[in-house]
Structures are given as structure tokens and as C-alpha cells.
Write a structure and sequence with these properties.
The protein is mainly alpha-helical. It has 3 domains: 3-90, no CATH class; 106-177 and 278-299, Cytochrome Bc1 Complex, Chain D, domain 2 (Orthogonal Bundle), CATH 1.10.760; 181-276, Cytochrome c-like domain (Cytochrome Bc1 Complex, Chain D, domain 2, Orthogonal Bundle). 52% of the residues lie in helices and 5% in strands. Strands 1-2 form a two-stranded antiparallel sheet. Its main location: membrane.
Length: 311
């Protein structure tokens, strides 16, 4: 807060407190010239008369005490512009202390699993239960409570892994995150193969996930193969099986991260895709990251006995 705004707040607070004190003082007693009860002519039911009468002294004193309390509060806690208060209290400091205390309790809970490998944790029902809870709180927003994902968010319950499904690779994904980038190739393909180039590549890509499909009677796919070999094979490989080091998907399986409709495939090729998995290591810490990675790995490796669906 700038010095000018700080003084603005201080003056505003002082005027409010001073105004309240003055108002109490001014109304605490009858003033010369105030009409007597019999002079107001405001009488109801014979004996109920309206006139100016100060509040009871005990009530007035309570108001003065609240003003004194407000002044003491503003001296002890921050509230007057940039003045930090005599106590040195800040909301950020209290948050950090509460967080540190909470993290200390968590560390006690997670300490038995520190440094254990993912496959070992995946065989421990108690570890899986903790991993499932962490997944539900952290990962289910994108991947769903059943870990089956959605359009643009990978299914974690099958055996298809774009970045590798070994325990070490899964932990690396959780800890460091992933950036999956598919460049836009629409302009390049059109320049090389004409206006139908993108449709031809779509036709060829579809044959990769259809066992026994022949290109002999599929002109569009045959044309698309030439373009695929020249451009797409650099990441997805000549056989279309992808590259887990790059996160390039295997195009020979039946799983399509962004949908398998012609429109979705065209959108992917023409405009590209950018999938981002945030790094959760700084958020969770290593032990919690290991537990959730073990749970995720167990979903497709048959070791999640009794783990159930995350809630």
C-alpha cells in the first residue's frame, strides 16, 4: 500500500472513531432548550409521552468501552494503513504456521511410506487407501473419480501410457508434470498434398488402428500414408506406435485422447494440440506423490485389491 493510501485509511478510521465518540458525548445528556415532556404534545394512551431522553448511563458506557476496545485492537493488530501493529501478526504468517503444523501431522502419517518404490506401495492396502484419497482430492478434477479421464484427459485405468507406464515413469509424470504438444500441420500438409491432404492422413491414421486393413482399395489412405511417412513418422514412428519419450501417442490402438470422430482428428492435425499435466511434486511432496503414483499404477497392473473407486 502506498504512503498516500495508508494515510487515507488512517485518517478515515480516526474520523470514524472520533465521530462515534463525539456522537455519544453529544447525546449523553439533555441540552438547554430541549422541550420538557409536557411541552412536546406527543402523548398516547394518557400517560405515554415522547420526548428527548438520553440513553441509560450504563448503556452509554458500554459504547465507550467498544471504542476503547477498537483503539486497542488497532494498536495491537494491523488495521491502520501500513502500520503493522505491535503484535506483528499477519494473516500470511498465521497461514504459514497453520500449514506447517498441518504438514507436520501429515508427515507422521506418511512417514512409514517414505522412499518406498511404487510397485511395493501398490501391494500395500493401507498405502493404496492413502493414494486413493490423495487422488480424489488432487487428480480427480481432471481424470475423474474413477480415473477414466475425459476428452483431453487421459484414462489412467487402462494399460495405455503415452509417457510410459513403468513405476518410475508414472512417478516422474506425477512429480514433474508433462507437456504434450502436437504441432499444427494443416498448412504444411495442404502445401504438400493439396486440399484433400488432411482428409487423406485421417483416412490412413484410421487404418493403423484397424487390424488387417489393406491400403490396396483405399486411395485416400494410400495417399495419406505418403504424407504420414514424410511428416508424422518423425514423432509417431513409421509403424505409428508412437514415442513415449516424446509423449507421442500410439496410433495403432483404439484409444483417442481427443476423440475419434473425423472432426476431432482433423482438428488435431490442422490446429495441433497442447496437453499440460502440472508438476505435482511441489504441491504434494515426494512421499505423497509416491502414494498417488502407486495408486494410479495399480489401477492398470491388477494390484489395487480393495482400493475401490476414489471418493
Amino acid at each position: 500500500m502506498s504512503t498516500g493510501w495508508s494515510w487515507y485509511v488512517i485518517v478515515l478510521v480516526a474520523l470514524n472513531i472520533g465521530g462515534c465518540a463525539w456522537l455519544l458525548w453529544w447525546t449523553a445528556k439533555r441540552r438547554p432548550g430541549d422541550p420538557k415532556p409536557e411541552d412536546t404534545s406527543h402523548v398516547w394512551d394518557g400517560d405515554i409521552t415522547e420526548y428527548n431522553k438520553p440513553l441509560p448511563r450504563w448503556w452509554i458506557n458500554l459504547f465507550y468501552l467498544t471504542i476503547a476496545f477498537a483503539i486497542g485492537y488497532l494498536v495491537w493488530y494491523p488495521g491502520l494503513g501500513n502500520f503493522a501493529g505491535k503484535s506483528g501478526w499477519t494473516s500470511a504468517g498465521e497461514h504459514d504456521r497453520d500449514k506447517a503444523a498441518y504438514n507436520a501431522k501429515l508427515e507422521e502419517t506418511f512417514a512409514p511410506y517414505k522412499g518406498q518404490s511404487i510397485d511395493v506401495l501398490a501391494r500395500d492396502p493401507a498405502a493404496l487407501k492413502l493414494g486413493r484419497s490423495i487422488f480424489g482430492n488432487t487428480c480427480s478434477t481432471c481424470h475423474g473419480s474413477s480415473a477414466q479421464g475425459a476428452i483431453g484427459y487421459p484414462n489412467l485405468s487402462d494399460k495405455i501410457w503415452h509417457w510410459g507406464g513403468s513405476p518410475e515413469r508414472v512417478l516422474e509424470t506425477v512429480m514433474k508434470g508433462r507437456e504434450g504438444v502436437m504441432a499444427p500441420w494443416g498448412t504444411v500438409l495442404t502445401g504438400m498434398g493439396g486440399e484433400h491432404a488432411v482428409d487423406n492422413v485421417v483416412a490412413y491414421v484410421r487404418t493403423l488402428s484397424t487390424p488387417g486393413q489393406s491400403l490396396q482399395n483405399n486411395y485416400m489412405a494410400a495417399q495419406g500414408q505418403k504424407l504420414f511417412d514424410n511428416i508424422c513418422a518423425a514423432c509417431h514412428g513409421k509403424d505409428g506406435k508412437g514415442n513415449q519419450q516424446l509423449g507421442a501417442p500410439d496410433l495403432t490402438d483404439a484409444y483417442w485422447l481427443y476423440g475419434d470422430s473425423t472432426a476431432a482428428l482433423r482438428e488435431t492435425i490442422v490446429n495441433g494440440r497442447h496437453g499440460s499435466m502440472p508438476a505435482h511434486g511441489p504441491l504434494l511432496g515426494e512421499t505423497r506423490a509416491r502414494l498417488v503414483a502407486a495408486y494410479v499404477w495399480s489401477l492398470s497392473n491388477g494390484n489395487a485389491k480393495g482400493a475401490g473407486t476414489p471418493r
